[in-house]
Amino acid sequence: MRVVATTNDPVRLSFLLALLEDSGIEAFVFDTHASIVEGSIGVIPRRIMVANDEYAMAAEILRNAPEI
User: Fold this and answer.
1) What range does the domain containing 30 cover?
2) CATH number of the domain enclosing 44
3) With 0-12 CB in 10 A as exposed, 13-18 as middle and 19+ as buried, what is 12?
4) Between 20 and 30 A from 56 (CA), which of 3, 6, 9, 47?
């Protein structure tokens, strides 16, 4: 697994996950529970992880994504 993006913004997180899902790439969110433990103040960014063999495609999709 490789990190393809990190964010503290729950809206951006949802958007990036939707882009990957629409492209057929399975993504996982890491550090969700760490964020909850620290009080949900948004200090610990959540990581979007993808399989090693899908990393290049996922990175390209997110690189071309419009800013929200």
Assistant:
1) 2-63
2) 3.30.70.790
3) middle
4) 9
